[in-house]
Amino acid sequence: MMRFLFLYPISILIHVIIALRNKLYDLRFLQIIKSKKTVISIGNIQLGGTGKTPFVAALAQQLIQKNLNPIIISRGYKRLTKDAIILTDINQYKAHHVGDEPYYL
Questions:
Q1: Do residues 105 and 58 lie in contact, with contact meaning Cβ atoms separated by under 8 Å?
Q2: Longest pairwise C-alpha distance within the chain
Q3: pTM for the predicted model, two decimal places
Q4: Cα separation values, 63 from 48, 68, 71, Å
Q5: Of 101, 99, 70, residue with least CA distance to 84
Q6: How far apart are CA 103 and CA 62, in angstroms?
Q7: pLDDT of residue 103
């Protein structure tokens, strides 16, 4: 337990940053973007290995079976490009251009 004591000050700092960010949204200093479409956000504070990508793939399959047209938005972790990319043709890009998980999905 004592070996993780150094994390406590970091957690307080993160808490303060998140509270400040939320207050900036409340005061309209940061722009709130609203979607006319339903948004399902999948994520957590774990970096990897928690099953987010397989869950997104399974959810997309379920939505497609219900004749819905899901769109998956991703930052493309560790991709080599910076611009926004709309991946509609798998042959147009390689995984390192868009990120391996968006490419897989």
A1: no
A2: 53
A3: 0.64
A4: 24, 5, 10
A5: 99
A6: 19
A7: 80
